[in-house]
Amino acid sequence: MADTSGVPEPTLDEQIAAYQREFRDLDPQVEKIVSALGRLNRRMNVAYGRQTANLGISSADWEVLKALVLSGAPYRMGPSDLAKRLGLTPAAMTHRIDRMVAEGLVTRERDESNRVRVIVELTPEGRGKWLEAMRMATVFEGELLQDLSPEERTALGEVLTRLLRRVEHAQPDAGGRLSDLD
Amino acid sequence: MADTSGVPEPTLDEQIAAYQREFRDLDPQVEKIVSALGRLNRRMNVAYGRQTANLGISSADWEVLKALVLSGAPYRMGPSDLAKRLGLTPAAMTHRIDRMVAEGLVTRERDESNRVRVIVELTPEGRGKWLEAMRMATVFEGELLQDLSPEERTALGEVLTRLLRRVEHAQPDAGGRLSDLD
DNA sequence: TATGTACTCTTTAGCTTCTAAGTCTTCAGA
DNA sequence: TCTGAAGACTTAGAAGCTAAAGAGTACATA
Q1: Whose CA is nearest the C1' atom of nucleotide D5?
Q2: DSSP code of residue B105
Q3: Do residues A75 and A127 touch, judged by C-beta distance below 8 A?
Q4: What residues of chain B lie within 8 A of the CB of A68, using their CB?
Q5: Helix, coil or strand: residue B158
Q6: Contacts of A88 in chain B (CB under 8 A)
Q7: Rounded distance between C-alpha atoms, residue B60 and residue B176, angstroms
Q8: Model pLDDT for residues A58-115, shown as the tens digit of each residue
Q9: Is residue A108 within 8 Å of A97, Cβ to Cβ?
Q10: Which candidate, B55, B54, B77, places its Cα nearest to that of B126?
Q11: Model pTM?
Q12: Angle of helix B12-22 relative to helix B28-54, nearest 10 degrees?
């Protein structure tokens, strides 16, 4: 285990001040938003990781469980669809499914109507783990947002989805400029 | 390279609707905020990763460059401080520095005043890469936020730092409940 | 001065997880 | 029936990590 003590991350404001010293053309307000977003997400992922670890599942497991649950009952997908969905090669997906079968989270069997295909199906235990993880996550999320008024929640949701739309319909090229893809 | 075509991620609203079907106790507004945060961050990280890849540096390199720049001139740190800062073991740090020395991004030399220690120092080339990456990142960030009014930017920055403060001073325990650490 | 101890970094061995490339099986169409 | 395409698995190997052992240096203390 890596030792994290002794050399603390600078606070958000310290970091922005340092950036301004090292890089002239910096809008501190933009940087504050972007850095806070990044940090907030990092902390939240640490929290989620701890919670799923307490359930004995890795974040790799979690991704697969999520994809299967989102596919809806009867919670079945083929390995290659899962691989595409998660951005893995089929080989990596094979290994990941091996592990999850051993852990009892999913089953793997041939599709009898087309024996080239394989069906990965969520077990009741896998679904239970997903439900438990969701339960813990929603408690955490509720407490995280508890100080926000209803108006603030509405406004925050609206602004974030606006930013998300913008980043989903555009990606930066080599020069760092947003360019429409469609 | 993994194939991502053909099995698209559900839209944010589709995903939340699916969550509600599978998990009763879900506040859709909370979930929308949290999911948008996660997606936004993921897309941004993809964008940053593309930009730094265009400069020929990995995200591992980027973390080290950032830590050294933030330490301020003369941009020097010891391997163990870097390791603690980045959450790596000293062994992993040794390997990472090996690579970066080979890439010309940093130098490594003994501290002559205390020959137990080693000094990792940013090269002008390493600093140039950091500056170039920052230039691209700020252009991207500016365009990302360009539709937000000054009031919206202020409000967003304020809300995000509030959430960040909350998550930094509390971490969930096994039950998913936020509990103060200090 | 000598020596034990602590500190810092590196080396070694091994693990995990990924990719690329090749193989096997099955199905569809000429 | 033959052939090609598609899906999943196997194998080989790369990358990056950890833990633990090792080597070199500094320092306190007898």
Answers
A1: A116
A2: S
A3: yes
A4: none
A5: helix
A6: 2
A7: 31
A8: 999 999 999 999 999 899 999 999 999 999 999 999 999 999 999 999 999 999 999 9
A9: yes
A10: B55
A11: 0.89
A12: 130
Place of tokens 């783990």: A129
- Cβ of residue B92 near strand D, that is under 7 Å? yes
A116 is written with which tokens?
């080239």
Look up residue B163 and give its DSSP letter.
H
pLDDT in tens, A131-150: 999 999 999 999 999 999 99
Asked if strand C comes closer than 7 Å to B99 Cβ, the answer is no
Query: Which residues neighbour A140 within 8 Å (Cβ) at sequence distance 6 or greater?
Result: A47, A48, A51, B172, B176, B177, B178
Say if the Cβ atoms of A83 and B144 lie within 8 Å: no
On the 0-12 / 13-18 / 19+ scale of CB atoms within 10 A, A72 is exposed
Contact of A82 with A67, CB cutoff 8 Å: yes
Strand D nucleotides, any atom under 7 Å to a protein CB? 6-12, 16-21, 24-27
Smallest CA–C1' separation from B108, nucleotide: C9
The H or E element that residue A170 is part of is: strand A170-172
Q: What's the Å distance between residue B116 CA and nucleotide D27 C1'?
A: 12
Helices (H), ranges, chain A? 12-22, 28-54, 59-70, 79-86, 90-102, 124-144, 150-168
